[in-house]
Amino acid sequence: xxxxxxxxxxxxxxxxxxxxxxxxxxxxxxxxxxxxxxxxxxxxxxxxxxxxxxxxxxxxxxxxxxxxxxxxxxxxxxxxxxxxxxxxxxxxxxxxxxxxxxxxxxxxxxxxxxxxxxxxxxxxxxxxxxxxxxxxxxxxxxxxxxxxxxxxxxxx
Length: 156
Fold this sequence. Notes:
Strand order of the largest sheet: 1-2-3-4-5-7-8-9
Low-confidence stretches: 4-20
CATH class: Mainly Beta
Helix content: 10-25%
Shape: elongated
CATH topology: AOC barrel-like
């Protein structure tokens, strides 16, 4: 009986070792938010801050704020995303890409993002994801929805 117990424990440890070492796991979620500020920097560049809430694997419920620069002539955007989980842990990412008008008259794009770290249980996180956003004109700026699809490695 003891041999079976020891064998079972060893099998579990061997099977769990890659996950404990920080394997890439899916990072998927949804977000919805709005423009909370927009400040012209030049005739072609606007410093925009969008903020909203969502839910994603690894972080659970979160609030995400995305300060970024929008280039009006090209639709290009570049900036950062800060996800703050319900427990206060933060996940940081950078992104760049472009938005273009879609058939419904909204702006849409898939923005490649790179996870650059965080705090708490995601302090040493790395990975990448696609941030597929649809931005609908609103009374002030845009109301947006997005999906998140990528992978994350959380090292301990």
